[in-house]
Amino acid sequence: MNALPLARRAVLALDKTRGADFLAPLFFRLFLAPVFISAGLTKLLAFESTVAWFGNPDWGLGLPFPWLLAALATYTELIGGFLLFFGFATRLIAMPLMFTMIVAIMTVHWEHGWFAIAPSDPATSMAQPLAALGIPAAEESLANSEEVGKRLTAAREILREHGNYSWLTQTGTFVVLNNGIEFAATYLLMLLSLFFTGPGRFLSIDYWLRRRLMPQP
């Protein structure tokens, strides 16, 4: 059987799914909106502490103009989250939100590498294939994962002996927070996609405004 007609039919079948192409940006928006609303609201409710963290060089970020930068970050995240939810000015708000993610990556997470949660088992670590290629950062992460596993094992043994371990782990297991760029980079890429594609058809204010203001001939 000729493979070319089969490939053509497969491509045509896949093209039919484009009628639902609005779902991807919609889900991106619904995923990101509560993330940014929560981040902005947390900063707003503890704004003085946020300003102190932005400005303190010893235990904070050591940024200049901490009040101004804290206010910009707070309201960009808070307002931006609601704009994403409703799909209004999506491509415009994606730009300052991407900027806040880049700042977070460079000032908060970069020194901790990629992983948000430290891998605790070298055998299943996502760094393993990259380490096999000889990438130094991945090799370091892989070496550290063995040490993380030892510490988690020790912590579990202590808690089993001296604490109510089943109650402590009822809502989730213990992990070691690594605070790497993983989550911020993921949000950045999702925002980048929304910047280029927009909020999607039908279920966004931008879509209906565009139809009203720029009707197709």
TrEMBL record:
Family to which the UniProt record says this protein belongs: Belongs to the DoxX family.
Keywords, alphabetical: Cell membrane, Membrane, Transmembrane, Transmembrane helix
GO CC term (a single one): plasma membrane
Protein topology in the membrane: Multi-pass membrane protein
Main location, first listed in the record: membrane
Species annotation: Kineobactrum sediminis
Subcellular location: Cell membrane
InterPro entries membership: DoxX, DoxX-like_oxidoreductase
Identification of the protein by name: DoxX family protein
Listed transmembrane segments: 26-47, 67-85, 92-110, 184-204
